Structure prediction request, 185 residues.
Amino acid sequence: MSKMGAYVLDQQIEEYESYHNYMGRRMREADRYEYDRDQKWHNRFMDMALLIADWSKDPSSKIGAVAVNDERRILATGYNGFPKGIEDTPERLANRPEKHQLVIHAEMNALMNALYSGVSLKGATMYVYGLPICPDCAKCVIQAGVKHVVIPTDKTDKGEWQKVWEEKSLPMFKESGVKVTVLGM
Ligand SMILES: [Zn+2]
Prediction:
């Protein structure tokens, strides 16, 4: 190998390495961009779930759910409340056993609203604000074909909800292959 040849080879290696580094950096930047973009949309839909939660007349807990497709179009929304035509009087809302019998949870209401409109939630992402998802809603969310649930936090000071989330809902989501994202808000 001539001296010039060795020099060219060294330069090629150097160029190859810098190209490699360049591509690595570009890939990290692309990942970062995708991460930031996903995070931005997660925050937007979670803000919307929070807004919808506030429509609930339940004085003790206000929960909101927003289901979107993979193009980030809104498919259905729901908040916790009584069925259509069932009057949510202060007396009924104050009577816990009666309230629990009548109330439809936000997640379930989003599923029912999708059904009412003839919209499939197959492959959808559901944002839920307020409380971790209860096992009754979790199994229906799974069965409706929702593939991803996003919650702001998986911690609540309501001990019973915390327990059933950790012991029932979360394991069900994991076993059925539904992705769970906790935003850590
Ligand atoms: Zn529920």
